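User: My instructor asked us to take a sequence, write out its structure as C-alpha cells, and then describe one feature of it. I'm not sure where to start. Here is the sequence I was given:
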Amino acid sequence: MKAEILCVGTEILLGDIVNTNAQFISKQLADLGIEVFHQSVVGDNPERLLEELKNGFERSDIIITTGGLGPTQDDLTKETGARFLGRELVLDKDSLENLKKRFSSMGRSYLKGNNVKQAYFPKGSKILPNPNGTAPGCIMEEGNKALIILPGPPKEVTPMFINYVKPILKKYSTRVIKSKTLRICGIGEGIMAEMASDIIKNSTNPTVAPYAKEEDTILRITAEAPTENEALDLIKPVESRLKKIFGINIYGEDNAKIEGVLGKMLVDKNYTISSAESCTGGLIAAKLVNYPGISQVFKEGAVTYSNEAKMNRLGVKKSTLDKYSAVSYETAKEMAEGIARTSNTDIGIATTGIAGPGGGSPGKPVGLVYIGLCIKGKTKVKKFQYPGNRATVRKRAVMSALDWIRREITDK
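Assistant: Let's start with the prediction itself. The C-alpha cells for your sequence are:
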C-alpha cells in the first residue's frame, strides 16, 4: 500500500510551527509496512487542498491529513474532504454531546456558530474520538482508498493515531518494515560510508543507509518482511557485520544518547567525575546530569571561563597562561588535572577553545578546541578543529569529550 501525508495550515508554510506530525506519522506507517511516497503542506485554502487531494489519490491509496479541524472559518479540511468524495456533512450527536461536556468541564459554554461545526462529519465516515481536544478526526473509505483526517496539535494527533488509526490501518498492511540504528562517533559520514561501502552497495533487504547528524553519524539498517520477527532476523547478520567493522566507534543503538551510555558506564564502574569548562560553558555538566542516578559519581562542574577562574579555581599557572594562552595544550592539561585534584574525582575533563564567531587568529582559528582528560592521575590532551558556528563548535566539543571518556574507560 502507498500512503502520503498532507499537512494543512498556513502557519506551517510561514514557518511559525515545526511540522512534527509528518515525522511521527511516517515512522508509524513504516512500522506497519505501509510505504510513504509523498509528503506535502498546503495552506488554509479549500481550492488548493482539493487539488492536493485529487493529485494525492492518483499516486496513493491512503491520504492522512492533519490540521484544519478547528472552529474557525478557515478550518475546512473535513468540508473539503466531503466535497472531494461527494458526501454531505451530517451532525454526529455523540460528538456534539462530548463537545458540550468538554466546554462545561472548563466552565465555558460552546459557541453554536463556531464550535458546533466540529461535530459535523462527512456522511458514512468513521469518527475518531479526541479526548485531548475539541476536534474529533474521521476516516472515509471509498473502494480501496482511504482518507484519514486528523487534528493539527501533536498532543492530539499522537494518541488518536496510536489508539484509533493504527489498529484500522493494520488491515491495509501485509508486510512489516523494521529498522535498527547504530550510532557512531569519531568518524565522519564519508569515512563511515567508505568503511561500510560493500555492505551498503550489496544490501537489498535489509538496506543500509548512512546519515550525518550534527553531533554524530548513524547507520540505519531497514528490513521488510511479513512479520516483525522475520524482519528482525534479516537485520541481525548485517548488524553483526557492521559491529565488527566499527567496533568501539559505535557508542549506542536506536535512540541512545551519549550521556546515557557514558552515565551508565560511570555508575556501573563507580568512576567519579568532575568537569572544568571554558568554551563549552557548562554543557558537559548539563549533558551528564541528564542521566538519572549520575549524582552517585558526578561531583562537580566548574565553568572557568576567565583566566582568573582558571588560576583561582583550578590552579592553572599564570606562567602557563602567559606563555601558551588560555587556548592551548598546556592549559587544557592543567585544567583537567586541577578539577580532578580539587574535586577529588577519578576523572577530570576540561575544555578550552575558540567557539567564535570572533576571537580567532591564523595560529588559533575559530573552531580550535583543546580537551584535557585526567583519569586516575594520568593526563592526555587532544586538539580538535571544528567547522560551523558557535553553537555547533560547542556541541561537537561536548560530544568529543564525552565519547573520549567512554572510549578510555571501556573494559577498564
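For the description part of your assignment, you could build on this observation: Residues 390-409 form the longest helix (20 residues). Try explaining in your own words what that tells you about the chain.
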